[in-house]
Amino acid sequence: MSRKVFISFLGGTNYRYCDYQKDDKSYGNVRFVQEATLNYLEVNNKWTKDDVALILLTKTAEDNNWVDNGQKDREGNVVCDELTNGTLEGLATRLKPFEIKLEPVRELPEGNDEKEIWEIFERVFKKINDDDELYFDITHGFRYLPMLVMVLCNYSKFLKKVTVKSITYGNFEVARKLGHGLLVDLLPLTKLQDWTYAAGTYLDSGNVDKLTTLCNEETKLVLRESLGKDEGAKKLKSFVSKLSAVVEERRTCRGIDIIESKSLKGLKEAADVLEESTFIKPFNPIFEKTKKSLISFDENENIRNGLSAAVWCYDNGLYQQSATILQEFVVSFFCMRHGIAIDDEENRELVNKAFNIKAHNTDEDKWNAKDEQKPKIREIISDDYFDNEKLIAYFQNLTEVRNDFNHSGMRSKRVPMKPSNIKENIKKCICGFAVLLFNIKIEK
C-alpha cells in the first residue's frame, strides 16, 4: 500500500498566529501553516501511522521553530507565546496530535547556490519511495522553491511512479485585508504540466497512451464530484477516447477501418463540440493544436485516407506500420479500380501478382496464377497506371522493405537493410505514390 508523504519546508522566522481558511472554512488559528495544511488535507483522507511528514530543516529553522522556546529576542531572552504568554511550542510539538510519523530532514543547506540547491533536491528525493502519494507545502523557503518542487514532482513521477496529490501555499499577507489567511491550491499548475506533456507526446510521436490515462483519471474525479453532469469533462473524455481509437487503427494497421473512416468521423464530431469547455482553462489552446493535427484526414470513406495514414505513421516513427499501410493502400487503390472488394483476400493477391509480373516482364505461360485468374490479371496490367515504370519500381521497393521488416533482416540471400535506408525508401515511396496516383506533392 502506498504511503502518504507530506513534504514541507520550515523557515526560521518567528511566525505570527493566522487563521488559515480554504473555501470559507477555517483550518486553525495557528503559527505554523503546516498544522493548518495537515488539517485541511485530512478532511478527505485521514493521516495514519504509516504516513510520513518530511519537515525540511536548515540549522536555523531547527533551532528557532522545530523545538519549543526556540525564538529569542535581541537580548537573547526566550520569546513567549503571544496568546498564552507561556511556552512557545515548536512545530515538532504542534504536529504530535496528528497520527503521522514525523521525520525531520535536518541540517539542509540554505540553498544559496546551485550546489546547495542540488543537495536539497537529492536529499529530498532519496526520502521518497516508489508509489508514494506526495503532498507539498511550499509556503516557506527561498524563491527557487516552487521551481524545485515542480522539477522534483516530474522527476519522481518518472523514476518512482509517485502521484502528486496536493501542492499548497499558505498566503499570510492577505490577512491584513481579509482578516484571515488563505490556503491556496497550486495543484492545477502541475496538472496543466501533465496535460501539456501528454498532449505533446501525442503530437510529437503519435502515442496517445499518456493522454488517455491522464484523461480517464482526471475526468473520473470531475464526473464523480458533479454526479456525471460536467459537460466539459464528458466532451473531453469522448474526444480523447475517439482519438485513441483512431490512433490504434494506425498503430495496428487496420486498413479497412482507416479507409472507411468511421472512427475519424466520430473523432472530428467530438472535436467540433470540444470548444472552450475543458475543465482546465489554460489547456484549451493545447487541445486546439491537437484538433488541428486531424485536418489532413477525410472523415468520409476515402481511399486516400490510406495514404494519409501512411504519412502519419512515418511522421511518428512507426515505419513498419507506414510501409504496411502504404503498400496495402496501393493494392486497395487498384482493387477499387478493377471491381475487387478491398477485403477480398484471394483476389487482392491478383494485384500483387500483376505488379510482380510487370516488374519482371514475365511471359504469361510462366505466370504463377490459375487460368481463371489470368483474365483479371491481364485487365490490371493493362491499366494505364501500369505503364509508368516508376510506379512498378516503388511497389517492388516497398515489397523489399516489408520483407526485410517481417524477417527482421535475417535472410541469407539478402543483405539486411540499414535503418537509414529503410526510412529513406519508405519516404521515397510515399512521395512517389502520392504524385503518381493522386498528383499530390508531399513535402518531406
How does this structure look, described?
This protein has 444 residues and is of the alpha/beta class. The protein is 52% helix and 12% strand. The protein is built from 18 helices and eight strands. It has helices at 33-42, 59-66, 91-94, 114-126, 145-160, 175-178, 187-205, 209-225, 231-251, 255-260, 262-273, 284-292, 304-315, 319-337, 345-360, 374-381, 389-406, 419-438; strands at 4-10, 18-22, 25-30, 52-58, 101-108, 133-137, 163-171, 181-185. It has an eight-stranded mixed sheet with strand order 3-2-8-7-6-1-4-5, with helices on both faces. A hairpin with a 2-residue loop joins β2 and β3. α14 (319-337) packs across α15 (345-360), α14 (319-337) runs parallel beside α18 and α15 (345-360) crosses α17. The longest helix is centred in the middle third of the chain and has 21 residues, at 231-251. It is elongated and about 110 Å long. It starts with a strand and ends in a 6-residue tail after the last helix. The mean pLDDT is 90.
